[in-house]
Amino acid sequence: MSETVKTKLRILGPELTEHLNWADAVEALRRGHTFPRATVSDMLIPMADGELLTRSAVIPGLGAGTKSVTIRPDNPALLPPAPSVQGLFTLFDEDRGHPVGLIDGALLTFWKTVADSLLGASYMAPNDAKSLAVIGTGPIAKGLLEGYVTFYPDLTDIRIWGRTQERAQAIADEVTFPLEVCDTAEDAIRGADIVTSATASKSPVIKGDWVKPGAHVDLVGAHAPDMREGDDALISHSSVFVDSRETVLEHIGELRIPISQKVISLADVKGDLYDLVMADSHQRGDDEITVFKNGGGAHLDVMMALYCLQQSKKL
Q1: CATH, domain 2-109+300-312, list 3.30.70.20, 3.30.470.30, 3.10.28.10, 3.30.1780.10
Q2: What is the pLDDT of residues 97-145, one digit of tens each?
Q3: Are 241 and 124 in contact, with CB atoms under 8 Å apart?
Q4: What is the pTM of this model?
Q5: C-alpha distances in angstroms, 73 versus 133, 191, 270?
Q6: What is the DSSP letter of 212?
Q7: Homologous superfamily of the 126-296 domain (CATH)
């Protein structure tokens, strides 16, 4: 029995990237939300120069898995540079419970995180979006830039801002489309139809006063109880959705802080991806600002890991 299990374990690394695409990745998450709601568990432990994050999930009828990663925001500035997120995800078989996949954590986090935001945007962002603002310059921010440009081919006004302008300029020099490097976050955000942010900020970098009526704001970076990217004005004057109530509301400062300070209540959170996928739509008003908090729960890792495993079997 042990030999049979061993032959079924696939080890998947960055080389799988060229066999993945955003349309199928987003569809994998959408389909995953048609299964019963996942049971999730998160644990965040401080460690030297960063944190150790462990997330587990069980999705009835689909599978189970656990991801353990280190998060070290300063790693890209090291010599030589190192990824800011490093770790592994173990995917377990639904029927017998044995491990069937061991997947590079950075690869899985990258594809899961961006596809999470794109799925949310597919329900909430304006269909005729022409302008995009990207806040942040790390690997996830670059992935969000790539994903949104792929999903919204009519974008004609694309901007980026980061605390280190040299890193923003380096991204602009790499891409094959016009990308404006802005001097301030405000310059990037004002007038944008879609704003996506992936920073490690513990204080808001997006002010509600900068966001135009009818815009969609995608908040990705905050993952800890003391982190947030949008200010109270944004959160309190928008239609707020999350990817998972269980993952976001009690564990991530983006909404945990304004809820605890009574800026908004739990009832003000209109829904999560399970609700959006079930309804298969969100009727937005012309001037309605939508906010989506991407918390990146382990159930999304399970869904994305299954997609990665399926693609690896085609090779």
Answers
A1: 3.30.1780.10
A2: 899 999 999 899 999 999 999 999 999 999 899 999 999 999 999 999 9
A3: yes
A4: 0.93
A5: 22, 30, 31
A6: P
A7: NAD(P)-binding Rossmann-like Domain (3.40.50.720)
